[in-house]
């Protein structure tokens, strides 16, 4: 079974998601999307598979979102895709693809919804937050 994660190693949520996938017994294909961005066609496929719009996948924090004026509703989906292609940092992450579905793993435990073996036991995130054996946050 192939699992793919569009990953940013500088992102704690992305690192936690990758660790959860590995704890489930899978070794995913890791695509550092800032180095190897998805093609426009692939990005459109991912967005559709997640049931989102391009605007819903936009990342604001730590990106040129504000300076590009992307909060303005004048931008069409096609234009937002253009911005994402020009500035991959605008693509929110991590996106995980498995044969069971595609998710934006925010929070990281959302990845459990599409793992073939979601019974990973308790998991402690980098920030100390604990996910119990049923995938729920503790405390």
At the fold tier of CATH, the topology name is Glutaredoxin
- The N- and C-terminal alpha carbons lie at a distance of 33 Å
Roughly what is the average pLDDT, rounded to an integer? Answer: 94
Q: Bin the strand percentage.
A: 15-25%
Count of individual beta strands: 7
CATH homologous superfamily heading? Glutaredoxin
Order of helices and strands: EHEHHHEEEEE
Q: Assign the CATH architecture.
A: 3-Layer(aba) Sandwich
Could you characterize what this model shows?
The chain has a single domain (4-138), classed as Glutaredoxin, CATH 3.40.30. It contains four helices and seven strands. The mean pLDDT is 94. The protein is α+β, with helices and mostly antiparallel strands and 139 residues long. It starts with a strand and ends with a strand. The chain has helices spanning 12-23, 40-50, 54-57, 77-86, and strands at residues 4-7, 29-32, 95-98, 101-104, 123-124, 130-131, 137-138. The chain has a four-stranded mixed sheet with strand order 2-1-3-4. A three-stranded antiparallel sheet has the order 5-6-7, with no helix packed on it.
């Amino acid at each position: 079974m192939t699992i793919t994660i569009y990953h940013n190693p500088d992102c704690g949520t992305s690192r936690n998601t990758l660790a959860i996938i590995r704890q489930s017994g899978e070794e995913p294909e890791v695509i550092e999307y800032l180095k190897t961005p998805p093609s426009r066609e692939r990005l459109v496929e991912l967005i559709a598979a997640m049931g989102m719009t391009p605007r819903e996948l936009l990342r604001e924090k730590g990106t040129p979102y504000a300076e590009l004026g992307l909060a303005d509703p004048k931008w069409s989906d096609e234009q937002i895709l253009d911005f994402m292609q020009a500035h991959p940092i605008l693509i929110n992450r991590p996106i995980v693809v498995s044969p069971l579905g595609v998710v934006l793993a925010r929070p990281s435990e959302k990845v459990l919804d599409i793992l073939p073996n979601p019974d990973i036991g308790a998991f402690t995130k980098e920030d100390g937050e604990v996910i119990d054996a049923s995938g729920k946050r503790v405390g």
